[in-house]
Amino acid sequence: MRILDRLFLWIGSTFTLSAYMGSTKIQGLLWSAADITLALVLLKIADEARARAGKGRIRIRYALIWASALLTPLLVLARTPVEFFYLESVIFALQYLVLLFSVFTESRMILRAIRETRKG
Amino acid sequence: MEKPFFRVMAVLWLFAEGILLVAARWAAGTVRGEGKPQGKFITVCLLLFFLLAGAAFFGETAFRAWHPDSRRIDLFLYNSTLWNLFCTAWVIIEGLIVLHLFHIDGTMKGTRTRPGSAAAAAFLLVALPLAFFLLYQAQLVSVVARYRLGTVAASRISRFFIRLCGFLWIAFEWAAALVGLRILRRLRHPGVTSP
C-alpha cells in the first residue's frame, strides 16, 4: 500500500466529527482574532490619515469590531458544524463589513498620507 | 455545500475577499507611483468569480443532469471538490493580499521589489495552493474508488483539507495584520526605520 493511501485512510478513520469540531473551534478563534487585529490596524491607519486631513475619529466601526470580539468566544459553545457556521457568519459579516466599508471610504486618504510620509 | 445558506455565504466571502485583493493591488501600484491598469485584472477576477458562483448555485443540478446514474458518493465527491476549490481560492486571495501589503511596506521603507521576483512570488502563491488542491482531490477520488470508501470516511478526508486551508489562510491574515502594523508605525514615525 502506498504511503499516501495509508495517510488518507488514516485520516478517513481518525478525523471524526468531534476532532473536526475541536479543530474548527480553535481555527475559528484564531481566525477571528486575526480578523479583529487586521480590522483594528486598518482603522488605526485610517484614523491616522483622517487626523492629517483634519477629519474626526472613527467610532461606530470600532464598536462593530468590539461587538464581533464579544461574540467570538461563543464559537466554543457551538455543538454542530451548522451551528458553528451560522455564528461564524454573523461574526465575520461584522468584520468584513468594517473592512470593506473602510477600504471603500478611506483608501484614497490613506494613500495620500502614505505618499506624504514618503516625501516628508 | 449542501445548504443554500452555506453557498450564499461562500460566494459572498469570495466576493468580499476579491474586492480586498483588487483594492490591495491598486493601493500597492499607486504607492509605487505606477498606477497599474486594473481593467484586465478585474475582468479575469470577475470571470473566475462568476464561474465559481455558477458552480456553487447550479453545478449540482447540472451534475445530476449529466450523470443521472451517479451514486451518492459521486455527488459527495463533486460537492467536496467544489467546497475545497473555494477554500483554495480563499488561500490564494489571502496570500496575494499579503504580497501586495508587503510591497506597500517595502515602498514606504524605500526598498523596491524587482518586477521579476514580485511576479514569481505571485505565481507561486497561485500555483502552489492550486497544485496541492488538484493532487489532494485526485488522491481523494482515487482512494475512494480503490478502497470503496463510503461518504463518512470520504467526508473526513475532505474536511481535513478544509482544516489545512483554514490554518494557511489564518497564517496569511496574521501576516497581513503584522504588515499592517509596520505600515502604521511607518506612518506615525516616518523617520524611524523598521526591520
Question: What can you see in these coordinates?
Answer:
The complex is a heterodimer of chains A (120) and B (195). Chain A has one domain (17-119). Chain A contains four helices and no strands. Chain A has helices spanning 3-14, 17-52, 60-71, 81-119. In chain A, helix 2 runs antiparallel to helix 3 (60-71) and helix 2 (17-52) runs parallel beside helix 4 (81-119). With 120 residues, chain A is mostly helical. Chain B is mainly α. Chain B has one domain.
Largest sheet of chain A: none
Count of structural domains of chain B = 1
Strand content of chain A: under 5%
**How many E strands of chain B?**
0
Count of DSSP helices of chain B? 5
Sheet of most strands of chain B? none
What pattern of helices and strands is seen along the backbone of chain B?
HHHHH
In total, the number of domains of chain A comes to: 1
Unreliable stretches of chain B, pLDDT < 50, 5 or more residues? none
Distance between the termini of chain B: 44 Å
Query: How much β-strand is present in the residues of chain B?
Result: under 5%
Proportion of residues in helical segments of chain B: over 70%
General form of chain B: elongated
Q: Helix fraction of chain A?
A: over 70%
Please name the two chains that share the biggest interface, counting residues whose Cβ lies under 8 Å from a Cβ on the partner chain: A-B, 44 and 45 residues
Count all strands of chain A and give the number.
0
Characterize the overall form of chain A: elongated
Structural category of chain B is mainly alpha
SSE string of chain A, helix = H, strand = E? HHHH
